[in-house]
Write a structure and sequence with these properties.
There is one protein chain. The protein is mainly beta. It contains three helices and twelve strands; from the N terminus they run E-E-E-E-E-H-E-H-H-E-E-E-E-E-E. The radius of gyration is 19 Å and the shape is elongated. The protein starts with a strand and ends in an 8-residue tail after the last strand.
Length: 168
């Protein structure tokens, strides 16, 4: 089931005295915050923080929100995970996000054999790694590289051509 609000990052700390925060951004792309009007403190879309400005500094974004103009106003945000509205991240509704894959089956494309359900997706730069729970209850990792992936469907799951022995 697609979530309406997706994890966008974590506010690490405050920055300076005018209410800016340091945001560890988990969104993909060259300008991940471009086009976003707001971030949210809860995954149900409550706790709206209207974005005023964002700029890169090292490995974080310095972000300011409307109505937060002091370090005291920004301090309660430290350590909070923030969420972005799916409709702002993907206006055409065409993308599949990591969160969409959780709980979906990972199956062999040719035989339909289910290898397990996806528990977690971790990005490793060049590719992703799926943590799956096998039908026997054991957990295993599957490298989601293009050579192995056949199709992804946010409703039906992920079909792969697994290399021989990967789950042995």
């Amino acid at each position: 089931m697609k979530q309406n609000y997706l994890e966008a990052g974590k506010i690490r700390n405050t920055h300076a005295l005018k209410g800016e925060v340091k945001l560890e951004c988990w969104l993909e792309g060259e300008k991940p915050l471009a086009g976003l009007r707001a971030l949210y403190l809860k995954k149900d879309g409550t706790g709206k923080l209207v974005l005023r400005a964002a700029r890169v500094q090292g490995d974080v974004f310095l972000v300011s929100f409307e109505g937060i103009d002091t370090v005291e106003g920004a301090t309660p945000l430290k350590g909070k995970t923030v969420y972005a509205a799916r409709e702002e991240l993907d206006p055409k509704g065409e993308k599949i996000f990591f969160a969409d894959l959780i709980g979906l089956p990972l199956t062999e494309a040719e035989t339909g054999e289910e290898y397990g359900k996806i528990l977690e997706v971790t990005s490793r730069g060049a590719s992703e790694l799926y943590l799956i729970r096998r039908p026997d209850g054991k957990e295993a990792y599957f490298p989601a590289v293009k050579e192995f992936l056949v199709s992804m469907d946010a409703d039906k799951g992920v079909q792969v051509r697994a290399p021989r022995g990967i789950f042995d």
